[in-house]
């Protein structure tokens, strides 16, 4: 798997890097330079489904705390139509019915279609369900599989994507995720969905195109949503001053099930994982709703039930690129001691349009006067992974701080996605896949050992 050893020149270059820096590996892979451009409006991936009032932009996410409910969302354009979801399990012909609600919003001079959200509950675990939306006009049918019952040794495979956007590279990232033989069952999405805010007046038509683009995956498996800075849409010059207005209308999450007071931070259990989603762009200082929620949330995690504790956020805390440098620092100062105390296994972030994986490090000793402010190896600390390389129109972040800091284990400026494949309570196999390789190629990988059940140092650089 080590492509460095294939070329003598590369080995010399690697030796040069090792002598220069204290950190891990900066990949010498150099991506073909080409412009990152958005797919035009008439692209095949943006096609509107045919038929009167046909449901479009169909997407699902987990609908409760344990995985027995699903939120189904879709948009109709001609008239509100029905908010009913018909659903039935693979082995039953009996159709059940759930009623949703419809909403619309305006953003500057854009008026949305009719946005439907319907939660279907009391599903069986580990079961394939069919569902239909658009009852009464054009009906479209999809399916999903519920997760296994929450438990400590349930294998489960998560996909990871961030900062996707709707460029030709975005399409390549999604295609690589879909074609990956490791077969992700649920996507953990790390924020920055559409990049519509880069268009004049935040042209919300680009939210609709994005919804149609990703439907081919998210109508069939849940994507777990994290809010990024491109979801804020704060535009006083357009008279739009309510942060997250568009995002919150279109993407519902089960935040009340985890006692959160806002849809931007929440938690779910899925199979053997406990997933905590945080908001880098909501208040997180002491006494704020998010702080108070997280303080009460972390002690609730029962590692005998869900061994894997995973945190998602948009803005990374450990980032050695010269982009968004230290933007995550204030939240790190607030929450990092908790992550070490509660032995978080891994933190996934986006925002920086590149890939980076850290060692297990913490930086929590500093108290303003003692001068102890360098990250140190810490077996109770999470691994931090930045995977903001979904392929949006802003292009890649290529400029890195030199030398590579000691905490940084691997970094590379290429587009891609990752897979976190939980095998049992002790082992999970992690791999990152760049778009320029074949579907099965792993550009970076590591075995994760669970921090609660098997807290052995798994870092190659520790030998
Ligand atoms: C919104 O306003 C812009 C100019 O400010 C215009 O180009 C665009 O066509 C308008 N869109 C709608 C839906 O009216
Ligand atoms: C996007 O990718 C899909 C699947 O590979 C392909 O069928 C489609 O033509 C692509 N569309 C564009 C605009 O690149
Ligand atoms: C933690 O989970 C295990 C396994 O489900 C259960 O037996 C135990 O009672 C739980 N502990 C607490 C404190 O809820
Ligand atoms: C990389 O970033 C550094 C720090 O911001 C800056 O001084 C330098 O000019 C940048 N290099 C390039 C090639 O953009
Ligand atoms: C957990 O999975 C790993 C990797 O597949 C395997 O080596 C190990 O034996 C498994 N542990 C148990 C208790 O089955
Ligand atoms: Fe971002």
From TrEMBL:
Claim: Oxidoreductase is one of the keywords in the record: no
Calcineurin-like phosphoesterase domain location: 157-355
InterPro entries, alphabetized: Calcineurin-like_PHP (IPR004843), Metallo-depent_PP-like (IPR029052), MPP_PAP (IPR041792), PAPs-like (IPR039331), PAPs_C (IPR025733), PAPs_N (IPR015914), Purple_acid_Pase-like_N (IPR008963)
Keyword Zinc annotated: yes
Required cofactor(s): Fe cation; Zn(2+)
Ranges of residues in domain Purple acid phosphatase C-terminal: 381-440
Domain (Purple acid phosphatase N-terminal) ranges: 55-146
Signal peptide boundaries: 1-23
An example molecular function term from Gene Ontology annotations: acid phosphatase activity
Catalysis: reaction(s): a phosphate monoester + H2O = an alcohol + phosphate
Enzyme Commission numbers on file: 3.1.3.2
A Pfam family that the UniProt record links to this protein: Pur_ac_phosph_N
Entry's family note: Belongs to the metallophosphoesterase superfamily. Purple acid phosphatase family.
PANTHER family according to UniProt: ACID PHOSPHATASE RELATED, PURPLE ACID PHOSPHATASE 10
Name this polypeptide is given: Purple acid phosphatase
Protein species of origin: Durio zibethinus (Durian)
Gene: LOC111282720
